[in-house]
């Protein structure tokens, strides 16, 4: 594939390409550009020119186009899902669900954009009015991680487009193809050239240039904490807006009166979805001492039921995307074991003909954990979870908050008041009590501490792509 710039496929001025491989087989099945600074200038120029007209398009027309784009996502969900399954290795059904769910979010943003309003304060001064209006912020650079390429993009794309911004997307090197095809579909929906562009390349080659470019008004980033910190620092120096959705090390507290028939399946499902490769997965589990042994036994049993294989086999889990990401799971498991933890299931790379060409790490449970272990302090981004016992709810809250991260947290308890009190005490952008659902489209999503800056989804997400302007009008 080529870069998608100004409504057409465009060969990179660098002349260089990189491979896209199937993480199950290791087989190369496509190539994408390794762009350079000339390519960055070309795509930013296109987005800047398109913005001049796009910002003046009535919101109702933008919403109509956005609904058409969302419908095309549904119409091509099987195609996009297969692309995503091949480049990511996630089971096909889950990939198709990502596409349809992202289409729902795109539709939601279209409708929510129609409800944005300004205001006129009632100062009651004769011959004068003051108006507060919202204007689109400008050209948005979207930089996203490999793990949910379409979901993470549409969290930014749908908000930016309905607000009147144009967007330049740089997807991950590992999973760029689904994003590139999505841009083509939006062009088919009727979006003007230059409104939605995609450029691929290595971050070290073009990342800084995209962030600091004179036409960049906002950077919307989802990815690793260290990279996000660098982007935030560069953007702040130049007065550019940014939203950062960064790493997570999400805790769950299982109180003594928790219903384990609900807690165990919910935690297992959320911990090991997408082979553990997402930022708000359960990483560390604090269980009251009175039910600790039972909980460990039941979670281990439930985890052993998960199946691992290739993305088209109907399994529960596929491989980890790359050796680099895989390495963390292996190292953190070894660290915990060396410090006295017990591995109740998993813990070693899977072997055999089916697994030899991919980075397959089994769903792994680490019992008898403590905060000296890396698994309790650092992000894993893999199918490993650790369990630690606690005596009091106050102790559990302190342990859960003893982290540099604060993206999500979870509580299971039989007493509603206890659940609400713990939720209020936990330092996280989102807290689930007595179940774990996907994050809803109409409420904000984002983190505190080192887990990010700003919020996505809901009207909050759209507002972050606008600037407030105050107009003083005398007559």
Automatic annotation (TrEMBL):
CDD domains cross-referenced by the UniProt entry: ALDH_F5_SSADH_GabD
GO molecular function: oxidoreductase activity, acting on the aldehyde or oxo group of donors, NAD or NADP as acceptor
Assigned keywords, A-Z: Oxidoreductase
The keyword Oxidoreductase appears for this protein: yes
InterPro entries per UniProt: Ald_DH/histidinol_DH (IPR016161), Ald_DH_C (IPR016163), Ald_DH_N (IPR016162), Aldehyde_DH_dom (IPR015590), Aldehyde_DH_Superfamily (IPR050740)
Span of domain Aldehyde dehydrogenase: 9-471
Domain of life: Bacteria
Gene3D superfamilies registered for this protein in UniProt: Aldehyde Dehydrogenase, Chain A, domain 1, Aldehyde Dehydrogenase, Chain A, domain 2
Similarity field: Belongs to the aldehyde dehydrogenase family.
Entry protein name: Succinate-semialdehyde dehydrogenase / glutarate-semialdehyde dehydrogenase
Lineage: Bacteria, Pseudomonadati, Bacteroidota, Flavobacteriia, Flavobacteriales
């Amino acid at each position: 594939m080529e870069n998608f710039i100004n409504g057409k496929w465009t060969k990179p001025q660098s002349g260089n390409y990189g491979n896209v491989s199937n993480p199950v087989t290791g087989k190369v099945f496509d190539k994408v550009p390794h762009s350079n600074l000339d390519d960055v200038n070309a795509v930013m120029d296109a987005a800047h020119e398109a913005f001049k007209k796009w910002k003046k398009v009535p919101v109702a027309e933008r919403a109509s186009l956005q609904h058409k784009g969302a419908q095309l996502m549904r119409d091509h969900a099987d195609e996009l899902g297969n692309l995503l399954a091949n480049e990511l290795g996630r089971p096909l059904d889950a990939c198709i669900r990502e596409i349809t769910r992202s289409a729902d979010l795109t539709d939601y943003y279209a409708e929510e954009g129609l409800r944005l309003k300004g205001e006129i304060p009632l100062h009651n001064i004769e011959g004068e009015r003051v108006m507060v209006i919202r204007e689109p912020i400008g050209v948005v650079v979207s930089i996203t991680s490999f793990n949910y390429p379409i979901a993470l993009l549409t969290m930014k794309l749908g908000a930016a487009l309905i607000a009147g911004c144009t967007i330049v997307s740089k997807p991950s090197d590992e999973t760029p193809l689904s994003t590139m095809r999505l841009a083509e579909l939006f062009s088919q929906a009727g979006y003007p050239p230059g409104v939605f562009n995609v450029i691929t390349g290595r971050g070290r080659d073009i990342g800084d240039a995209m962030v600091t470019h004179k036409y960049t008004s906002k950077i919307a980033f989802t990815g690793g904490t260290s990279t996000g910190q660098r982007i935030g620092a560069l953007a702040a120096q130049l007065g550019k807006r940014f939203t950062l959705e960064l790493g997570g090390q999400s805790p769950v507290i299982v109180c003594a009166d928790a219903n384990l028939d609900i807690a165990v399946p919910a935690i297992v499902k959320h911990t090991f979805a997408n082979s553990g490769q997402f930022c708000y997965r359960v990483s560390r589990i604090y269980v009251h001492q009175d039910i600790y042994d039972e909980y460990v036994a039941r979670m281990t049993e439930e985890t052993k039921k998960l199946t691992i294989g290739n993305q088209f086999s109907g399994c529960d889990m596929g491989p980890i995307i790359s050796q680099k990401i895989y390495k963390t799971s292996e190292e953190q498991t070894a660290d915990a074991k060396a410090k006295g933890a017990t591995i109740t299931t998993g813990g070693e790379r899977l072997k055999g003909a089916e697994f030899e060409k991919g980075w397959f790490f089994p769903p792994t449970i680490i019992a008898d954990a403590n905060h000296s272990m890396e698994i309790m302090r650092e992000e894993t981004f893999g199918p490993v979870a650790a369990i630690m016992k606690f005596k009091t709810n106050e102790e559990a809250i302190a342990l859960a908050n003893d982290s540099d991260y604060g993206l999500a947290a979870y509580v299971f308890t039989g007493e509603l008041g206890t659940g609400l009190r713990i939720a209020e005490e936990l330092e996280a952008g989102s807290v689930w009590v007595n179940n774990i659902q996907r994050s809803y489209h109409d409420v904000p999503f984002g983190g505190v501490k080192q887990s990010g800056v700003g919020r996505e989804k809901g009207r909050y997400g759209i507002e972050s792509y606008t600037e407030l302007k105050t107009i003083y009008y005398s007559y």
